[in-house]
């Protein structure tokens, strides 16, 4: 009998408001366990917090999606990776990764992000004004959750907001795991072509473009530090990562608060802003929107957790499982805005591939959950929870819509 066929099939179905139940059983039984992927190959699954962090920080494992044995979750993923002229930064290894990351680092330092707070709060207040003017009920995602991070990242890049639908639609096709590979490839090429147009245009007179694309053109492309394709790839990654995950956290974070009215009330009355910071971290931990980041392939034979991971074998460090490890987070299935833990969550990854825009995302989320409860204090669900439709099967978790009233 084929032993591979007996292995659990991954990815597991994710429930609407929690991690796949299989993670708990895996966590109790062994450090690492083999699973079967949908392409018939196998990979090692890690579910314990300490194991996940250790694997994500170990340079004996590669992030290069083109390498043989890299665990692919769908038919479209290897096509998207192999047809890119330049790999996205999250799929690169050292020293390439450091060079590419350094080109963007100054744009996302804590000091730089703090300077963006007035811009971010202006965007949020403007969208809340529009919501109040239109009146209830409305879909929080389309009217607020998605426009907040999309407006901010496009402003920072120097792309007109009128292009947001184009970028959003192509980005969603690229991250889908259940899409025809030809459509994913087409979306990738269209996004790359549009981004190259912006870069070429700003390169003509970069001094007048005080935005990320303009600075990349002046400081990186014209100095020979980046090629056009590399700059396109970096900007594409910012667009793809800079809107969907934060938008989903806004929606699901709001849902968590509305299902815990006492928590929503406490944020509304919070003047210290300490509680809103804790609440945001709990939203990030509890929901772990980008739940499949961090896949790796072994570059050499590695002894880990009592097993031998052979060169060319895939690794699946599951950050969703790590963020719900009861040995680190007491009662992990409970949403608690006052949660305290000895260790931070890994919703943004761990090691050198931690999300470069995490401080921007935190600033957006803290601003949203400071302003929204105070400006619309009677906010509530417009439909029963059971009628909400969650998105399944993609690289990011979320809701299709969140109807609210007040």
What tags apply to this protein structure?
406 residues; alpha+beta; Cytochrome p450; 5-stranded mixed beta sheet; 3-stranded antiparallel beta sheet; 12 strands; globular
Please describe what this structure looks like.
This protein has 406 residues and is of the alpha+beta class. The chain has 17 helices and twelve strands. The chain starts with 21 loop residues before the first helix and ends with a strand. The mean pLDDT is 91. Helix 3 packs parallel to helix 10 and helix 15 packs across helix 17. The chain has a single domain, classed as Cytochrome p450, CATH 1.10.630. 47% of the residues lie in helices and 9% in strands.
Order of helices and strands: HEEHEHHHHEHHHHHHHHHEEEEHHEEEE
What's the CATH topology name?
A: Cytochrome p450
CATH superfamily: Cytochrome P450
What quaternary form is this? Answer: single chain
CATH architecture group name = Orthogonal Bundle
Enumerate how many helices there are, as a single number.
Answer: 17
Write the layout of secondary structure elements.
Layout: H1 22-29, E1 32-36, E2 42-46, H2 49-56, E3 61-62, H3 76-82, H4 96-105, H5 110-115, H6 117-134, E4 138-139, H7 140-145, H8 147-157, H9 164-175, H10 181-203, H11 212-221, H12 228-241, H13 244-258, H14 261-268, H15 274-287, E5 296-298, E6 302-304, E7 307-309, E8 314-317, H16 319-322, H17 358-375, E9 380-381, E10 390-391, E11 398-399, E12 403-405
Parallel strand pairs: 2-8
Antiparallel strand pairs: 1-2, 3-5, 4-12, 5-8, 6-7, 9-12, 10-11
Helix pairs in contact: 3-10, 6-8, 6-17, 9-10, 10-11, 10-12, 13-15, 13-17, 14-17, 15-17
């Amino acid at each position: 009998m084929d032993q591979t066929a007996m292995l659990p099939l991954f990815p597991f179905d994710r429930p609407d408001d929690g991690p796949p139940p299989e993670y708990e059983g895996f966590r109790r039984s062994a450090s690492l366990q083999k699973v079967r992927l949908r392409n018939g190959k196998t990979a090692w699954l890690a579910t314990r917090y300490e194991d996940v962090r250790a694997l994500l920080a170990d340079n004996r494992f590669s992030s290069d999606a083109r390498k043989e044995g890299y665990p692919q979750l769908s038919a479209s993923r290897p096509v998207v990776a192999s047809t890119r002229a330049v790999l996205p930064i999250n799929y690169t290894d050292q020293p390439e990764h450091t060079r590419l990351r350094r080109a963007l680092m100054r744009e996302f330092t804590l000091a730089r992000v703090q300077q963006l707070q007035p811009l971010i709060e202006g965007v949020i207040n403007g969208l809340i004004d529009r919501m109040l003017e239109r009146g209830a009920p409305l879909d929080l995602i389309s009217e607020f959750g998605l426009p907040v991070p999309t407006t901010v990242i496009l402003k920072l890049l120097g792309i007109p907001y009128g292009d947001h639908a184009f970028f959003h639609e192509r980005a969603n096709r690229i991250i889908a795991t259940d899409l025809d590979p030809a459509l994913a490839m087409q979306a990738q090429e269209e996004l790359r072509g549009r981004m190259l147009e912006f870069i070429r245009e700003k390169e003509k007179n970069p001094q007048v473009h005080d935005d990320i694309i303009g600075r990349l053109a002046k400081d990186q492309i014209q100095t020979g530090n980046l090629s056009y394709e590399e700059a396109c790839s970096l900007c594409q990654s910012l667009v793809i990562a800079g809107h969907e995950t934060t938008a989903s956290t806004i929606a699901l974070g709001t849902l968590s608060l509305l299902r815990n009215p006492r928590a929503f009330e406490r944020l509304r009355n919070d003047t210290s802003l300490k509680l809103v910071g804790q609440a945001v971290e709990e939203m990030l931990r509890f929901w772990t929107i980008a739940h499949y980041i961090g896949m790796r392939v072994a570059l050499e034979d590695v002894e880990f957790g009592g097993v031998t991971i052979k060169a060319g074998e895939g690794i699946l460090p599951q950050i969703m499982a790590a963020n719900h490890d009861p040995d680190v987070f007491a009662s992990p299935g409970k949403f608690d805005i006052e949660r305290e833990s000895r260790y931070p969550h890994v919703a943004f990854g761990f090691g050198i591939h931690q999300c470069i825009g995490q401080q921007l995302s935190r600033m957006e989320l803290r601003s949203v959950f400071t302003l929204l409860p105070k400006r619309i204090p009677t906010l509530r669900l417009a439909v029963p929870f059971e009628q909400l439709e969650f998105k399944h099967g993609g690289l990011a978790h979320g809701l299709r819509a969140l109807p609210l009233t007040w």
